[in-house]
Specification:
Low-confidence stretches: 1-8, 73-93, 115-124
Strand content: over 45%
Largest sheet: 19 strands, antiparallel
Number of helices: 7
Structural class: alpha+beta
Radius of gyration: 30 Å
Helix content: 10-25%
């Protein structure tokens, strides 16, 4: 037996007990009824992965306990003739699919939130106090620790709202369009500062802004909108020593029905002092729409101009395919009917090396 095992590897014996029911009673010196093994620990060590460098399929058990494989073998844990290869499915998708799915989910959330205003209503008991001017117009309204105060400053109508140490001032033009928004942090009458400013620009008599600028102490964001009020470009700048450096730039294109056709996001990374750009990462999402509102658009997702995910939808609801592209010209295509997985095709260098069929329910 290996020195690692002979020295008393409790972790290995616990995992061995969970997998096979056997363990070294002299080593653990614990009654079988008292052994409790966290399933997360077992899942970790029995998880498989592809060692592309050595062209091998391994488990983390083999990595951490390379000399103990024969112990599990003697316990009847692994029988090659009964291995159907089903675990490969989970192996293939555990790493790359999770990463790509995370990237796509982040893009989806960003696209959803950019043109959505969140409304919230809070109902609670409290005392409301209203103060009027001589002409019966509202001068001040308070509710618990909240303050609402309308007024005028120059050519702008101003509304001040305050809650605890947070205060916001909204500026409106004569058309009652929001022009500027200031967020203040007020800790006491002598200490106050603007933490964020938003500026809006409009074309002529339009009530939809064509540009929005948001500035904080460390960043500035500029959003451009089309005539339909949909965002078409977003630029995010990092501010370092009063200079601005482009950190992210995103763009959107739409069809005549205001559906997104393309979304591109470029992320720049700099060193700590912003003297040098260390990396540039591009993500691109393409959409192709078919007739029928119940049919999702075909989708393609790229990273640095390399295709990573492709989904194709048929004219039949619930029938589609999705392909994930890995490094080394490896890909997995999954086919669905009625939104249920029916088949998976594994390819390497465009050659099929495995097909798995699923029973139709």
């Amino acid at each position: 037996m290996s020195n690692l095992f002979a020295a008393g590897n409790y972790t290995f014996e616990l995992i061995r007990f969970s997998l096979t029911g056997d363990y070294d009673k002299n080593l653990l010196n614990i009654d079988e009824s008292q052994l409790k093994v966290p399933h997360e620990l077992v899942d970790l060590f029995t998880r498989n992965f592809i060692d592309f460098e050595n062209h091998q399929i391994k488990s983390y058990m083999q990595v951490f306990f390379p000399e103990e494989d024969f112990v599990l073998g003697l316990s009847g844990f692994y029988l090659p003739e009964t291995d159907s290869g089903d675990w490969i499915d989970q192996l293939i998708f555990d790493s790359e699919e999770e990463r790509i799915a995370g990237e796509i989910e982040a893009l989806d959330q960003e696209n959803t939130l950019l043109n959505q205003e969140i409304e919230s209503a809070i109902s609670r008991n409290g005392e409301e106090i209203i103060t009027l001017r001589e002409d019966n117009s509202l001068s001040l309204m308070t509710f618990d620790d909240e303050i609402f105060m309308p007024g005028k400053e120059g050519h702008y109508f101003v509304i001040i709202t305050s809650s605890k140490d947070s205060t916001c001032r909204d500026f409106y033009d004569k058309e009652y369009r929001l022009i500027k928004k200031e967020y203040w942090l007020i800790t006491d009458p002598k200490n106050s500062k603007i933490t964020k400013e938003e500026d809006y620009q409009y074309k002529e008599s339009s009530f939809k802004p064509f540009q929005k600028s948001v500035k904080t102490q460390d960043s500035r964001e500029i959003d451009l909108y089309n005539d339909s009020g949909l965002i078409k470009e977003k630029s995010v700048y990092s501010i370092y020593e009063e200079k601005e450096y482009l950190a992210e730039k995103s763009s959107w294109t739409y069809n005549s029905e205001n559906q997104v056709l393309e979304n591109i996001k470029i992320t720049n990374t700099y060193d700590e002092t912003f003297q040098n750009k260390t990396d540039t990462f591009e993500q691109k999402y393409l959409f192709s729409y078919k007739k029928g509102k119940d049919i999702p658009p075909d989708q393609e997702y790229y990273e640095d101009k390399v295709l990573k995910l492709k989904s194709n939808y048929s004219d039949i609801v619930g029938k589609y395919s999705s392909t994930i592209y890995f490094d080394d010209n490896f890909s997995v295509t999954t086919y669905y009917e009625n939104n249920v997985k029916i088949k998976e095709v594994y390819k390497s260098d465009n050659k099929v090396w495995r097909i798995k069929n699923y029973e139709k329910k």
